[in-house]
Amino acid sequence: MSFKAGRALIVVDPFFESADFVGEIRSTLSTKGIASEVFSDFQPDPTDLNVLAGAARFTTFGADSILAIGGGSALDVAKMIGVSAANPGPISQFQGYHRVADAGPPLIAVPTTAGTGSEATKVAVVTDTTRNVKMMILDAKLMPTAAVVDYELTFSMPKPLTAHVGVDALTHGIEAYVSRKANSLTDPVALSSITKIHANLYNAWSDAGNEKAREAMSLAALQGGLAFTNSSVCLVHGMSRPLGLVFRLPHGLSNSVLLPTVTRFSWPGAKVRYAEIARAIQLVSEKTSDEAACEALAGWLDQLNSDLRVPRLRECCGGDMDRFRLTLAKMAADALESGSPQNNPVVPEATQIMELFELAW
Ligand SMILES: [Fe+2]
Fold it and tell me: Helices 72-86 and 48-61: crossing angle, nearest 10°?
């Protein structure tokens, strides 16, 4: 694989904007005759306005390529900056499946968290500020040209971020494995991701400098991205997007608080698959019944959240149940609208999604 780049827009997480390694990358590019400009003017869980600002910068600078450095927000906004630069008009035109006409410029993705796997997915999530909806945009043209996965970039993650993005990566593996779109190419990748996370997430969280755990988590996140982009995510992600939008929760956190509850709801629809996960991580023996294995898996997910000090949903949403209930109908409708719940082993009605939010409270 090769491509030409003469002017690179570096879309970098604001946290790393002035990091030494970004300066080193820019001077290396310069010695190779590649001019660069940095764009960091975007927020966590980026919006259409962030994308349009980045696309304008891309055009003004005369860029021909993008280097994306950061967590899922940086990678997703960078993907959509490229798409927007190649396809003028509102970002909402791309919402849904396969609606990108022209591929954007070459994009190199450098993840600094071990979570979203966006470096290896054909998906971006961007908020439409007009309709107040988190749009999922899925198109093969969003797949980065190349990914550079270096676990040393994840050492600086604070504990809560390590926990939340780690459980997000776990969610990718589980959802890819139980999805109605699971297939024989994604199954082994998903299971490999899950087993790495089972063995390493707690160690990466408790000991930030643990090289072995950080390396395994970076690889697991990459595998999770590869698995779900060729299978799908399901109900956890469907519910997580509106929850994150309404209550301003980062993506990893909004998935983490939902995963155990949604797993308990979903396993009756795919007992064998969930049981296989439980056996793969040796939570139960080969002789354990599928039902007991599924329940053991859900129990482990509860314990993992507890061990990683993931808060309960009520702690993330201000603790006001009455106010929370007022949001449920729209969140359930938006979840169903995204299409992700339809991939779930049990496809819920809107009222069931509302009940699940209450159960996770
Ligand atoms: Fe995710």
Answer: 60
Ligand 1 centroid – CA 125 distance (Å): 10
Q: What is the DSSP string of 234-293?
A: -HHHHHHHHHHHHHT--HHHHHHTTHHHHHHHHGGGSHHHHHHHHHHTTSS-TTS-HHHH
pTM of the model: 0.95
* Measured distance CA(309)–CA(304) in Å, rounded: 8
* Residue 11's pLDDT band (cuts 50, 70, 90): very high
pLDDT in tens, 21-34: 999 999 999 999 99
Q: What percent of the chain has pLDDT over 70?
A: 100
User: What type of residue sits at position 236?
Assistant: V
- What are the structure tokens assigned to 192, written together? 């490999």
The partner residues of 10 in beta bridges, in order of sequence, read 38, 67
Taking the centre of ligand 1 as the mean of its atom positions, its distance from the CA of residue 238, in whole angstroms, is 10
What's the pLDDT tens digit per position in 77-96? 999 999 999 999 999 999 99
| pLDDT value at residue 357 | 98
Task: Give backbone dihedrals phi and psi of 124, rounded to 5 degrees, phi first.
Answer: -140, 150
**How big is the CA angle at 354 (ends 351 and 356), to the nearest 5 degrees?**
110
DSSP-derived 3-state class of residue 143: coil
Query: How much distance in Å is there from the Cα of 91 to the middle of ligand 1?
Result: 21
Phi, psi (rounded to 5 degrees) for 10:
-95, 110
Question: Look-up: residue for tokens 């090769």?
Answer: 2
